């Protein structure tokens, strides 16, 4: 399974593609960050992000897109910007007929490190180890995007197969 992970953001939108299956170490296919200037008008920033996401999807041809689930904190303005980037990723994926999944930061941290309270350095270290990289991807947004993709390969793939089996059985478990 080839998965595009998206760590949404307006200034830095992390993107990472991994390929793998449950029970085997995933392989990194690509990693990067889509950047927009903070002083640029919001519509132009959103267009840059959407264009970047479309380029990644067209170049790497993922089978699935997984996006970090937005959670509300005290900074509503920041959350709104992240939510807009999430929407762009969802629309770009849907235009290509790609299924979209979301994983919470806690779920991703637990999948990779065994603790939902892991910090960014721990997540980066595990991404480096799992993908057999020489050093952690920088900035952290890029490592987080890979972490999302790894989490989906390990956890989402099993959920996908269960859902398909339930659907084949007529909705009975």
Radius of gyration: 16 Å
Class based on secondary structure composition and strand pairing: alpha/beta
Number of helices: 5
* Average pLDDT: 90
CATH fold descriptor: Nucleotidyltransferase, domain 5
Shape: globular
Q: List the quaternary state of the chains.
A: single chain
Biggest β-sheet, characterized?
Answer: 5 strands, mixed
**Number of distinct beta strands:** 5
End-to-end Cα distance, whole Å, is 25 Å
Helix-residue proportion? 40-55%
Order of helices and strands: EEEHEHEHHH
- What is the name of the CATH architecture? 2-Layer Sandwich
Could you tell me the strand content as a percent range? 15-25%
Query: Low-confidence runs (pLDDT<50, min 5 residues)?
Result: none
Quick summary:
This protein has 5 helices and 5 strands; from the N terminus they run βββαβαβααα. With 173 residues, the protein is an alpha/beta fold. Helix 2 links the parallel strand 4 and strand 5.
Could you characterize what this model shows?
The structure is a single chain. Helices cover 51% and strands 18% of the residues. It has 173 residues and is α/β, with parallel strands linked by helices. Helix 1 runs parallel beside helix 2. It is globular and about 45 Å long. The two termini are 25 Å apart. The model has no long low-confidence stretch (mean pLDDT 90).
């Amino acid at each position: 399974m080839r998965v595009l992970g998206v760590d949404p953001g307006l200034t830095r939108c992390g993107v990472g593609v991994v390929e793998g299956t449950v029970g085997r170490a995933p392989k990194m296919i690509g990693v990067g960050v889509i950047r927009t200037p903070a002083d640029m008008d919001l519509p132009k920033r959103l267009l840059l992000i959407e264009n970047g996401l479309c380029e990644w999807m067209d170049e790497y041809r993922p089978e699935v897109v997984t996006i970090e689930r937005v959670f509300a904190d005290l900074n509503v303005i920041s959350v709104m910007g992240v939510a807009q980037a999430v929407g762009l990723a969802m629309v770009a994926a849907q235009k290509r007929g790609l299924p979209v999944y979301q994983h919470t930061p806690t779920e991703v941290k637990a999948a990779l490190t065994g603790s939902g309270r892991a910090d960014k350095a721990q997540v980066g270290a595990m991404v480096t180890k799992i993908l057999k990289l020489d050093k952690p991807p920088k900035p952290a947004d890029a490592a987080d995007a890979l972490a999302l993709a790894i989490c989906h390969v390990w956890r989402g793939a099993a959920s996908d197969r269960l859902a398909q089996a339930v659907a084949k059985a007529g909705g009975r478990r």
